Amino acid sequence: MFDERASDERRTQPSRVDDAGNRYEMRRLAGGEQRFEIVKNLLDRDELTRRLAPHATELVHRELRCFWVLEYRVG
Predict the structure, then answer these.
(1) Is 36 exposed, middle or buried (0-12, 13-18, 19+ CB in 10 A)?
(2) What distance in Å separates the CA atoms of residue 48 and residue 33, rounded to the nearest whole number?
(3) Cα distances (Å, whole numbers) of residue 56 to 4, 13, 26, 64, 72
(4) What is the rounded CA–CA span in Å between residue 29 and residue 46?
(5) How many angstroms separate the CA atoms of 70 and 68, rounded?
(6) What is the pLDDT tens value at each position of the chain, 75 positions in all?
(7) Pairwise CA distance, residues 14 & 24, whole Å
């Protein structure tokens, strides 16, 4: 699993944050003709581990410059 991580280089601002703390960002299709809103929560190592630990083992988290990668085993 991988996704962006919070970093000083990340410049995308949220379009809104809901009462539950979910962050939303606007995106545009490649052709530019349609805009839509996505949920984009930037989870850190502790939050990812807390959420997945009950369901997975052998969690290995790596932080890259602008992304994180998480490897784990289920089952």
Answers:
(1) exposed
(2) 34
(3) 21, 32, 32, 22, 6
(4) 32
(5) 7
(6) 999 888 888 888 899 999 999 999 999 988 878 889 999 998 889 999 999 999 999 999 999 988 999 999 997
(7) 5
